[in-house]
Amino acid sequence: MSALVVADKVGAWYGQVVGLSELTLEIAGGLTGLVGPNGAGKSTFLKLVAGEMRPARGSIHVLGFAPFANRDYFRRVGFCPQQEAIWDDMTGLEAVTFLMRLHGYVPAEAKRRANAALDRVGLGDPRSRRIEGYSKGMRQRTKLAQAIAHDPELVIADEPLNGLDPVGRAEIQALFAELGRSGAHVLVSSHVLHEVEALTERIVLFHRGRLLAQGPVGEVRKLLSRHPRRVEIRARDTRRLATALIALEPVQSVRIEPGNRIAVETGDVERFFGELTGIAASGNFGLQSLESRDASLEAVFDYLVG
Amino acid sequence: MTASTHTEIYRRLKGQLEPHPPTARLLWRARMHVAFKRKLPLLVLFVPPWISGIVFSFVVYSKFTLEQGVESPLTAGNGGPMAGAMVGAIAGQLIQVHDQIVMFTHVSRVFALLAIAWFGAGLVCEDQRAGAHLLYFSRPVSRFAYFGGHFLTIASFGAIVTVGPVLLIGLVAVFSSPEYSFLLEKWDVLVGALGYATINVLVLSMIALGISALSSRKTYALAGVFAFVLGSDAVSGMMRATQGESDWGMLGVMSNLRRIAEWLMSANRQMFDWNPWFSVAILGGLALASGLLIARRLRRLEVVA
Asked: Which one of B13, B135, B302 has the shortest CB-CB distance to A151?
């Protein structure tokens, strides 16, 4: 299977500011999350993928197309930008219908698709009201609707969960999952790491316009052998347990924290877990829970960007 | 290169697609539709020029009919010495109507500026501010179509307040003049008036779009359009007054438009007597510069976050 996105030494600048620098990567089809702090280059990369920007250097191919100003490509892609973007004076239905007309759909078909897409994103009656009266979440849903209304093969969503309440967030996450299951490729960016983590296992990490890491969250973490992994243990007798843990060879540090918790840093997590099992069986420490802090994307990102 | 992915199981494009959707026209229609939702600006900006047009039309009508009686002097059938006098009277009326139309075109410049500035100043900058250009340019919409759609929008509003009333006055003049004498004798005035209205709209639309493309907000663009157009005329007026030389009028956008109006409609030159081709060149240069500016800014929309 060929890659969905192939970027080769791509560079992009905003005047003197570097947007992306010598970015080389391949992204396979399916649902992929783009993660990084603000200014990391996620939006720039997505604009390159969406065909909004021309790379200043290098080349990028998506679905086999060079995206910039490529009419055939645009018909196969839906883009939900981070910006407000939608026109206040139109209703949600008018805006999505208008954008479908720009794709070339005849009026009746454009309206049918707009209604169907607004149904999918859960924008009910408000679709007939002017967008100026919409909440942030409603605007976000309208933008998403215009990105999926023409059944694109690739949906590109830049910070799509911004402004959504928890219920809306869950609904949109379910929508992305459904898009993925139905065969569409989805590229989603977010600076809120757990949002992406809830959506997909496969991530691309950006930092200062460069690719930091790529792959399943767990695998990305495994690459970081030089970083100790953190494990949080809850136990009744933390002092005794900490004393026992510090004696273990794989343990690099032990810190007692409030709430009967112990934070352990280890260079070899599998060996540590093996030895911990022995300790737990031999001593009466009242072990309550064990959690790897590094399982979260947040932790991986913290490691990666220092 | 080609990429084969798992998209094969995804829904392919269905429905009826226009191979080359008229994106500029669609954009124009959408913008007009949106603009017509807000009634107050329409009322404030459209009613005065149309009332003026109706008033001027009534004056034109009265010149031909009310002052001479409803029956046309040419059709009254009296020959001899009376006929010569009547022909002379009609010639006088034609000149007066000609002057009325010229006067209206002078008035319409202000209406055009107000309408074009109001409806055009926000087009590009508000798109850019909101990021709406990202929605356009991720679709089969070229930058030229984007410009075309916006230009058609702004020019339509200009035409509604200038070309429309001029057509009304012209039609009233034609149909109320005896034996369509206004059309037969003064057709060049009608053509000139329409030509001038078109130039007026084109030039002001390009300037407004250019300033909109440069601005970050509609209010700034609005102020910029008025400052540029009226400011240039204020400077030219000041220079004319201090230097005593009418050629300084060439510094002002409105002065140049007035000079072209007088030229196209063969009107008596009251203030300006420079070669009208200078005005054509100046305004053409301004429109061209605005066009280049817009092209550059639209090109830069690619990289505006």
From this structure: B13
Across the interface, of A19, A77, A83, the residue whose CB is closest to B138 is A77
ipTM score here? 0.77
pLDDT confidence of residue B82? 62
Chain A nearest C-alpha distance from B285 (Å)? 29
How many degrees, rounded to 5, is the angle at CA A10 between CA A103 and CA A71? 15
User: Where do the CATH 3.40.50.300 domains begin and end in chain A?
Assistant: 5-222
- Helical residues (DSSP H) of chain A, grouped into ranges: 42-50, 71-74, 92-103, 107-120, 136-148, 166-181, 193-199, 217-222, 238-246, 269-282, 297-305
Residue from A61, A38, A29 nearest A48 by CA = A61
Mean pLDDT is lowest, of A52-66, A186-200, B58-72, B174-188, for: B58-72
**Region A5-222: CATH code:** 3.40.50.300
pLDDT tens-digit profile of A188-207?
Answer: 998 777 778 788 888 898 88
In percent, how much of chain B has pLDDT > 70?
A: 82
Give, in degrees to the nearest 5, the angle at Cα A273 between A269 and A278. 150
Strand partners, A215: A203
Fold observed for domain A229-305: Alpha-Beta Plaits (3.30.70)
Picking from A253, A256, A260, A259, the residue whose alpha carbon sits closest to that of residue A235 is A260
- Asked if pLDDT for residue B11 goes beyond 50, the answer is no
- The answer to whether the Cβ–Cβ distance between B19 and A104 falls below 8 Å is yes
Q: How far apart are CA A260 and CA A285, in angstroms?
A: 11
Structurally, chain B folds into a number of domains equal to 1
Provide the residue type at B4 as one letter.
Answer: S
pLDDT tens for B240-259 read 889 888 888 899 999 999 88
If you average pLDDT over residues A92-110, what whole number do you get? 92
- What separation, in Å, do the N-terminal and C-terminal C-alpha atoms of chain A show? 35
Q: Which residue has the tokens 């007309």?
A: A101
Contact B21 A79 (CB under 8 A): no
Enumerate the residues of chain A whose CB falls inside 8 A of the CB of residue B298.
Answer: none
Query: Which range of residues forms the domain containing residue B239?
Result: 107-164+175-303
CB contact under 8 A, A90 and B9: no
- The distance in angstroms from the start CA to the end CA of chain B is 29
